[in-house]
Amino acid sequence: MKVFISVDMEGTTPTIRWDECEHGKGYYTTYAEQMTREVVAACEGAINAGADEIVIKDAHETGANIDITKLPECAKLIRGWSGHPYSMVFGIDSSFDAAMFIGYHSAASREGNPLSHTMSGKALYIKINGEYASEFMLFSYAAALEGVPTVFLSGDKMLCEDGKKLHPGLYTVAVKEGFGASAVCLSTAKSMKLIRENVEKALKQDLPKAKITLPRHFTVEICFKEHANANKASYYPGMKKLNGNTVLFETDDYFEVLRMIGFVL
Ligand SMILES: [Zn+2]
In this predicted structure, what is the pLDDT of residue 64? Predict the structure, then answer.
């Protein structure tokens, strides 16, 4: 069994401040170590379910956070950023049996995580077909474009609830619950145990049944915090300006949504 894991940091168990997630800042190393521990727990669950090939994308900030020396022998780690529109799931293709997401966070404008954002932080919100779009939505849909089912997600509670509406076969572990600029976090011992157990359960399900059909049409609305960014984005081919801060992009091809996001955010 071949499994793809994308790992972010703002939805790992303890993080609530930007400087905890930023390379070179104060206690960053402590939180990067926890990011590694959560992906190792996911690998252990995957191996218990029969995975013999695991590809991990380090998908936070520099793409150079996970400690490769802690990973099992059957894992490969993709570090850094390729520039490919698949971005946080770069490396995924139709040869994978399942995709999983660790340490993911609520969408821009959703109050489920003190660090809620979608991509660069330029957007106040992104809506796809009227729903607030998280990075989990963007890149679990990229997995779906390759015919790969998304079966596991760990992150904040609100993202887990939002995620279940997108993927019927999704197992989730809510490692924290955001309240304003604070969060109630599980102990790291508990979150790693739950990740290990639920990844194993997720991968033991009938995986082809967990595949989703993508919408036939995509309406993507992006509201920027700064009007100058909306003005610049309005020159992307096919983009319409709705008002000073908001642009609209429509397509039937989900790859074009990802290509646009890669250029304007
Ligand atoms: Zn991140």
Answer: 98
| Euclidean distance between CA atoms 176 and 115, whole angstroms | 12
User: What is the residue range of 68's domain?
Assistant: 2-107+135-210
Q: CATH number of the domain at 56, please.
A: 3.40.50.10780
How many angstroms separate the alpha carbon of residue 128 from the centre of ligand 1? 20
Residue type, 145: L
Q: What is the pLDDT of residues 218-242, one digit of tens each?
A: 999 999 999 999 999 999 999 999 9
CA of 8 to the centre of ligand 1 (A): 5
- Count CB-CB contacts under 10 A for residue 161: 13
| Pick from 78, 85, 84: nearest CA to 62 | 78
Separation of CA 206 and ligand 1 centre (Å)? 30
CA of 11 to the centre of ligand 1 (A): 8
Contact 148, 9 (CB under 8 A): no
Residue 263 lies inside a defined structural domain of this protein = no
The Å distance, Cα 29 to ligand 1 centre, comes to 15
- Interatomic CA distance for residues 38 and 191, integer angstroms: 8
Residues with CB under 5 A from ligand 1 (ion): 8-10, 60
Among candidate residues 35, 34, 26, the one with its CA nearest the CA of residue 8: 35
Residue 39 in domain? yes
Task: Using alpha carbons only, give the angle 135, 180, 17 rounded to the nearest 5 degrees.
Answer: 65
Looking at the domain assignment, is residue 88 inside a domain?
yes
List, for the chain, all residue ranges whose pLDDT scores fall below the cut of 50. Answer: none
In a domain, 48, yes or no: yes
Determine contact, residues 204/197, Cβ cutoff 8 Å.
no
45-69 pLDDT tens trace: 999 999 999 999 999 999 999 999 9
- Residue 112 has, within 13 A of its CA and on its CB side, a CA count of 24
